[in-house]
Amino acid sequence: MTFARPATTVIALAAIVTLTGCGSNSKTSITTPTVLPARIYELANFKPSTPITPARTTLLSFTIRTPAGTPLTAYKTCCEPHAGVDLIIVRSDDSHVQYDDTDIAANGRISQPVVFPAPGRYRIVVDAYPKQSGPNSPFNFQLFRWVTVRGAYHPQPVPAYSSTQTVDGYRFQIQGHLKAIEANFLTIHVRDPNGDKTVFATWRGAYAHAIFFRAHSLDYFHTHVCSPHSRYCFSVLGGARVTGSSQAPGVLKVGVLLPAPGTWRMFLLTYMHGHILTAPFTLTAR
After folding, report:
1. Burial of 153 (C-beta count, 10 Å sphere; 0-12/13-18/19+)
2. Which residues are CB-contacts of 236 (< 8 A; sequence separation ≥ 6)?
3. pLDDT single digits (tens) 68-98
4. Among 1-5, 147-151, 250-254, which stretch is predicted with the lowest mean pLDDT?
5. Which of these three, 126, 149, 172, is where a domain ends?
6. Which of 119, 149, 179 is the C-terminal boundary of a domain?
7. How far apart are the C-alpha atoms of 83 and 53, rounded to whole Å?
8. Are residues 219 and 106 both part of a single domain?
């Protein structure tokens, strides 16, 4: 389950109002309300803290601090594709997206080597699936960080809609329409370089991962396509829920719940013969 949340997850906000009074002739006094700070999950000790060199391996590392102020150390391991911490990186012009797994140390320190391909500003999306310890614990949440990659930044325009993309000889053809705040389905037909229907392999618990970013605002949504009987392959937004599936070779049915209308970039990731293919599409949600 992956939510589209543009801000840090707020866990609790407490306010205390005290009323005091004495006898029948006394005046009732009202104290000023005491509002405690919002308790949130946040990124702590994020590295690197300086601009990054493009085309070189950079080690990103950080700790997620819990609302109690302690490092988060326990994450779901049961529920792929909803497990651990996903690291998703997008350039500010939507021209590049990458999706990385992470290593989580016993003390909660999270690290991942990353290569940023070109100069510019990149938004880091940390999509975390904590091991639930109480009824108010979130199933997952997102935290965000901007980093700068050195060099002259040349933003790329958002490409126009095209129903077909070819990546490494694989042909991806998309059908369907999107409406914000409602469950939608996109059907994607995939054929290999020989023209045959593709047999999908499982990668990180899913046949396909669909990562969406809204143009300019970079609102985020992440969903999956799994086997028909997968238990955890669902996404929710408010009271709506949608599940993507693949029941035949060469066909992916992507369940989508976008939080806002507008132009969106979808990056469809599939795993073919030992490497990841990323098929990008420009879509419009009404």
Report:
1. middle
2. 1, 3, 242, 257
3. 999 999 999 888 888 899 999 999 999 999 9
4. 1-5
5. 149
6. 149
7. 30
8. no
Residue 208: domain span: 164-285
Helices of type H across the chain = none
Same domain? For 143 and 240 the reply is no
Give the tens place of pLDDT for each residue, 165-177: 999 999 999 999 9
Tell me whether residue 197 is in a domain: yes
Give 16-60 pLDDT, tens digit per residue. Answer: 232 223 233 334 444 445 444 446 899 999 999 999 999 999 999
Using left for φ > 0, alpha for ψ between -120 and 50, and beta otherwise, residue 207 falls in alpha
> What is the C-alpha to C-alpha distance for residues 190 and 170, in angstroms, rounded to an integer?
7
Indicate whether 21 belongs to any domain: no
In 3D space, the residue among 223, 239, 229 whose CA is nearest the CA of residue 188 turns out to be 223
Q: At which residue do the structure tokens 């028909």 appear?
A: 228
Structure token pair of residue 61? 């590392």
Q: Which residue has 């490409």 as its token pair?
A: 159
Residues 6+ apart with CB under 8 A from 132: 76, 139
Cα separation, 109 vs 117, whole angstroms: 25
Residues 145 and 168 in one domain: no
Please say whether the beta carbons of 67 and 41 come within 8 A: yes
For residues 142 and 220, membership in a common domain is answered with no
Residue 28, in any domain of the structure: no
> Same structural domain for residues 49 and 84?
yes
DSSP summary character for residue 117: -
Task: Answer yes or no: is 1 within a domain.
Answer: no
Q: Are residues 137 and 179 in the same domain?
A: no
**Residue 62 contacts residue 112 (beta carbons within 8 Å):** no
Mean pLDDT value of segment 100-124: 95
